[in-house]
């Protein structure tokens, strides 16, 4: 076997013990809140049929799908003629039937359609799994990354929006991150489109103002100009979407502007219901109306959300979501309305890291005690000790190899952030005790196994 | 967009809420024991470079790797000439650089080599992730399945073997499954090869007797015959490997048979150390010497293990492992001895399912209470209730849509195995209470929110 210098594919990462501990801390925090709000987990396969994935994420998305080569004699249908035509699309279709999951939403829609007869609707599901995108890797953007989604399907009720907003608030409170949850409604955007230029321009407007953060008002204006929006249309659009002020004023002013749009008024009503209900049950949530919030995806039809951290330098979105009226329609099941949110594990990780918000117990090994000894005889004695501690549930280990130098063993404990070392030497064995060293405080005590257990349990 | 009837790739599975809960129960049980014994988690990417994976699992294994198509213009190097030669291997190399993880051992070896300067050795790591194999799908065999591995690298000590055996025992005790842990030693097999026919025949013998379970003594004999083993050699081999009896007798009898083999005697000594040490610290583990245990993989060099359930119809292996002296050598790092074990999540799942060993709380939603109501006014009241319960950490939900029929809402609770329903009607609101229905016992009580919390916390 050749001895190659190993590496991993670009855009992918190994996670060491500390990183796994920190990631789990985030996942557990999110999961606990999902469960508290009545959501149930599902998991879908990493590979989906390409027929399930293709055409769901736009042309750009299709290009970013990781495709898996068929097994066996996958070239059998590829003739030189097919190749000469350099028909890459056809070739791909013939040699690859499966792709890696691109997000959790489409697999969820597929799951709902396939299991519609077993599911009790409204179905509140959460899903926390990796997704893969063949994006150009760059800082903070990976080719394998995790999403944590919660969705409710089969219910039109705005109580679901209310639940999801509270989940956002509670998760980030649990993680100690100050966030702002922005809310808007696609029906309001539809109303705005209607009064500014015409209902059919909704998606154009949504895609354009979705870029406000990146390219600013000037950039968006230019883009709309190029798409045949007049200066008057553009300025009246910006006048509406940049409305600032108290919630009530903002909604009041919008109501008068959208009075000719039934859909726009419906959107305002939905927003008002959510805001008023939230006000009644939870005043601490920082929910902020933002009429310029658009979210690019075309399947949103009602409330839309986006969450950003208020502290630190990483101001980009760490979560988002919204209501979609017909996601399962792409798989032949119409009339199932849903609403969902997503947490971006990797971005949240970066925020917590920057703000130093990870708790201490994610910093090292969970082991509480390392048993150290000097020779075969004391090894057997130390083995009794580690067994006794494990029997009462205290995570502990014994240095496995006989190395006479106790310093090497203590170094090992320090490297792993193990807080205690129990040393077994001739003196200790004679007294049937262990020298328990507190490695953070440089203190030590001579204790029997029972005393040690008592000491460590406190 | 076309409306296709959705499906998932063969050999893959969706997991619904109950299945996820059950799988998590197994994973959590295993993980807790790993942590108690001082193991730390790592995670590696789903995709590895094919140069990392290829050649590590034999020719058969190479064929079972799922290969991922390069992104972008992946056909650019494929000329009709390459195709005409129908050189599939070359084509694959040119269009695919990455593959899906086939097991957790090779990625772990790669990880150790890449991170050797940061790792504190001995390194005790665990890893619980899915792996993918393009095997023919059949009952109990999937193309995506999970492995849970624990390995120690950078230590020769047999205390590691002792830890791993206890981990096996403790996990299955925790899961309530009676198991038998078989143990043997590759050095003993080497000694047997030496006295039966010659040291160079070790791997042939190991591969042949690894099939004993499947094809029986007769089948193995035939296979060895075909490989130029004489009848005398075969019968002397079987005489040794089928030795039965008490541990001490078995080892005593083997010692006399292998007295000419230094390596064989070393193997016996290692086995004796493990058995004696285990006897001193934990008499309850059912460890059984089996000289016919071989395990096919060529990289094992010391103790080897295999675990099987003692009850039910599923007698196949639900775990296995062993010591390897030079796994990282394939990536250029020599002299790192390791020992590891693996749990097969899917097989353990099947065993627990058959023996009905899953605990009750893996059977349904974690939600404790569903709030039910009749109209908009009682919805607002019920919303106060569900918020109060969630504020004290009780998982609860409110039926989101206004449906006048209470029966439909209670049906929903029953389908999800939610044990309580809190009903808010006009009477209840007038008294500022809720009717708490115990859905398992068909009892109900009129309670204030505080009383309800008190009641549910017990």
Beta content of chain A comes to 15-25%
Shape of chain A: globular
CATH overall fold name of the largest domain in chain A: BirA Bifunctional Protein, domain 2
Largest interface (CB within 8 Å) is between: A-B, 116 and 116 residues
Major beta sheet summary of chain A: 8 strands, mixed
How far is it from the N-terminal to the C-terminal residue of chain A, by CA?
Answer: 53 Å
Q: Can you tell me the residue ranges of chain A where pLDDT is under 50 for at least 5 consecutive residues?
A: none
What is the mean predicted local confidence, pLDDT of chain A? 92
Strand order of the largest sheet of chain A: 1-5-6-11-10-9-7-8
Question: Structural class of the helix and strand makeup of chain A?
Answer: alpha+beta
Q: Give the beta-strand count of chain A.
A: 16
Brief write-up:
Chain A is an alpha+beta fold. Helices cover 43% and strands 20% of the residues of chain A.
Write the layout of secondary structure elements.
The structure is a homodimer of 458-residue chains.
Chain A: H1 17-36, E1 40-41, E2 47-49, H2 50-53, H3 58-63, E3 67-69, H4 80-84, H5 88-95, E4 96-100, H6 105-114, E5 123-132, E6 144-153, H7 159-175, E7 179-185, H8 186-196, H9 202-209, H10 212-226, H11 231-241, H12 247-257, H13 262-281, E8 287-289, E9 300-309, E10 317-324, E11 338-344, H14 345-354, E12 369-373, H15 376-391, E13 396-398, H16 406-415, E14 420-424, H17 426-430, E15 434-438, E16 443-447, H18 449-457
Parallel strand pairs in A: 1-5, 7-8, 12-13, 12-14
Antiparallel strand pairs in A: 2-4, 3-4, 5-6, 6-11, 7-9, 9-10, 10-11, 14-15, 15-16
Helix pairs in contact in A: 1-7, 1-14, 8-13, 9-10
